[in-house]
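Our preliminary data section would be incomplete without showing what the modeling component actually yields. Below, a chain of 229 amino acids is followed by its predicted structure, encoded as tokens that our downstream tools consume directly.
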Amino acid sequence: MASRVNFKTILAKYQNINKGNVRLTQSTLFLSKPINPTTTVYNFDVLESQTQTLQGDEIRLNLNDEFSITQIGFYLQASVLGREGVDTGARVLLTHTQFENNFVEAAKLQPFYDGAFQIAVNNIIYLDKYDTKKSNITPITQNNAAGGVAYTATFDSNDFSKHGLYPTEPIIVLSGAKKNNLQLTLPRSISVANIVSTDNTGANYTLRIDRVVCKLLGLNAQNGASFQK
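Predicted structure:
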């Protein structure tokens, strides 16, 4: 029901500014930055045109579009390393830092879930001091030290607390035609951590936690940016 209300509300907004032909689609922005042990501030790049930092798994905003945020989530992203440290190419999202048998490595990451997030569009702050603790979830599948799915995020569309996403009210709009500043500030710096575990065949693997992720769910308005007619 909530998503239907959001759709009607946002569509009415575009109709009121004579953009009734804007196409709204359910969408996601998936923004990430490499962990940097020398900083406590992460500025997420929002636009597809910022190609210098664009990663293969990122989903960013087209210059012609607008994005209405309805849910926000923060994650630690890990590369899965197989035997002898070879990168398997797989990536997993983590919603916590509580690893039973890796306390020292996990401690490097804890400040991530003590952070404060801010969103400003054209230098107007629409979200301030939003705490990342909302996304700090430790489901059973992550707390288990054994099994091939250990430490991977659990997704349940019926329960926000299961996957680290949290509803956003009022709705915030990002625009490809404006300056979007998405900034995460941590109380202390974090550093890359290596969490060793065992899969269901008994073989060791390593989760190299090396990126932070901001995931935004909402509605994308194709050709909704302000310089579009």
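The helical segments are 2-16, 103-107, 140-143. Residues 109 and 217 are 24 Å apart (CA to CA). Preliminary results of this kind motivate Aim 1 of the renewal.
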